[in-house]
Amino acid sequence: AGLITGCIGAGGGFIIAPALMSAGIKGILAVGTDLFHIFAKAIMGSVIHRKLGNVSVPLAFTFLIGAIGGATLGGVINRVLYEINPVLSDAFITTIYSIMLGGLGAYAMADYLKARKKPDAGGDAHGGKSEGADLGNLPKKLQAINAPPMITFDQNLVPGGRRISAWFLIASGFLVGFAAAIMGVGGGFLTFPIFVYTLGVSSMTTVGTDIFQIVFTAGYAAISQYAIYGFIFYTLAMGMLIGSLFGVQVGAMVTKVVEGITIRGFYAMAVLAGFINRIFALPGKLSDLEVISLSPGVVSVLDGIGIWAFFLVIGGFAVWVLYTFFSNLGRLRGAE
Q: What's the predicted TM-score (pTM) here?
């Protein structure tokens, strides 16, 4: 999860929450614990990306106005469902994961494959790193709408920078904050496609800004919506934090030696891995609720498939990031 946070900009919640639920931890406890762990980890990631010049503070703080409201609503819904029935809460969280990760993963993978076919997918005309895709029609249209206040960003990539209305950022923040509190994520897996494909923010600025906003979104949701109600497993969170603090530093450094299009490809793979894990767990949750009837043997086989597929994909991603890091140590030292 730390490698994913540093490399993609997502908090890794869509990896950890499914993993914890697969280990038998109640959904609401997995959500609260994950938010707390992500909050602490994102502080380290944002410091690193700030040094690398990838953080846009105006984008992040405007986005947070909406994110706080969304996180409050999401936390209330989760707690109400848990009080009604803990099994219902688990099934709800698993269903939300399946829908969100399935749709996002399919879209991101299709976009990555389309971008790979472009002749300039490997780099730009100046020999720099390509974003992996040009500014699409939707970002162009949104950036053309002059609804003050306007926020300027990507000044280091485009002369004069690009501009977007703060209202689009606030609306995006509300959606991400709501999903963060429901799913126990920092919202990075949503922020990445919203920033890149909808608002037209560059991949590298998105990665750094996303981790910066996660500090506040996850911190607020973890403390105000879960910690004070006893839904955080602190020893578990600290154990995950120790491992991820190393990973986030390695992942952030790898963004300096890989192209934006490669980061998009791994984002798509990681999201689809989380989707596979939860979609195979969903029949078991529905069976517990007596919505459908399945034998314990069938439920066990489906859970096993989801867990193995999930860890194989995520393990492969981790190996690739570590290989890229160690094989480019010379270049990274030079960049420093």
A: 0.71
